[in-house]
Amino acid sequence: MQGQKPKRGKMFYRKGDRVRHPIKEDWGLGKVLANSNGEKVDVFFVDAGEKTILLKYVEPIKVKGEESNHSGLDNLKADVSTSGIKYQKFSKLIDKFVEMYPEGFQNEKFAGEDRAKKEKAHEMAIELLPKDRFEELIAASDYAEVAKRTLKVLNATTLILPNERLTLKNGLVEERSQEMFAKALFELLYSEAPLKDRFERFSTVLDILGAGKWTLATYFLFIFYPKEHMFVKPKLMQQSADVCRFELHYKAQLNWQTYESVMSFAKYVSAELAELNPKDMIDVKGFIWHTAATA
Questions:
Q1: pLDDT tens column, 122-139
Q2: At what angle do helices 214-224 and 116-128 cross, to 10 degrees?
Q3: What is the pLDDT of residues 253-288, one digit of tens each?
């Protein structure tokens, strides 16, 4: 009847529920941000950002099972207001990247700027410190040679700032420091122990050497295993994650939770980039840095 008030929605939504808008299908999958109060519900949609839904007009459809899976929503950052960076849906980020690099990762400019030196550094790392040769150097207590080869790999790219390279170099002057570093690096790269334990031990050694930086803690895994691991440049990584509203649990002090979150973010980005066919984490890193630069 004319003048009749719309009925208030009866559906109750809990924080974390996955939903879809019954009309705005292009908003994609959503995550409920707080328990509904009977009048409204706040939802973050992957293709529309944060929206307040008035339940007397529309009731989001709850989604369960495999359809509800989404790594970005699993790791949704609760608040990005302090960064001042606005959320952008992934399709828009891809459009910006392709605008800069037509043909995506196969673009000649991208390959020359972002891939070439890192691929060369990877080849150098495998040549200078393969597992068997690394073991021989440690067995011979030739820790100085390990340090020398490590610094050569470090200098093969411009990923590490000069002052950070110098910090590590200065920390490796004494034989005891060289031994401690060589054994921790070998364990990080080649041990079958859980990665968490290897990463934490290597981080502890870097701290002792006065070189506890995220760049140094993640460089070697990235260069030796570019298909699996991500390099962390804190500011750029945080900016890119904030654009995607992905929670990194970032702390300046080296810690496993942050690195684990970075790897989750890298895998999420890689999966979202499937149409561009990224070759490895070198490509993914290039996309992440481009996203941060255009935030």
A1: 999 999 999 999 999 999
A2: 80
A3: 999 999 999 999 999 999 999 999 999 999 999 999
Cβ-count burial 93-116 (b if 16+ within 10 Å, e if not): bbeebeeebeebbebeebbeebbe
Residue by residue, DSSP assigns 84-134 as TPPP--HHHHHHHHHHHSTTGGG-HHHIIIIIHHHHHHHHHHHHHS-HHHH
- Please name the residues in contact with 180: beta carbons below 8 A apart, sequence gap of 6 or more: 205, 208, 209
Q: How many C-alpha atoms does 174 have within 13 Å on its Cβ side?
A: 6
Per domain, the residue ranges of the chain are: 18-69, 90-293
Helix axes 195-208, 214-224, angle to 10 degrees: 130
| Single pTM value for the model | 0.91
Cβ proximity of 248 and 55 under 8 Å: no
Residue with tokens 């649990």: 249
CB-CB contact of 44 with 31 (8 Å)? yes
Could you give the 3-state DSSP secondary structure of residue 213?
coil
Q: How far is CA 293 from CA 117, 121, 237, 287, in A?
A: 20, 24, 10, 10
Structure-token pair, residue 157: 């790219």
The token pair at 125 is 């790392």
List the one residue out of 266, 161, 148, 267 whose CA is nearest residue 216. Answer: 161
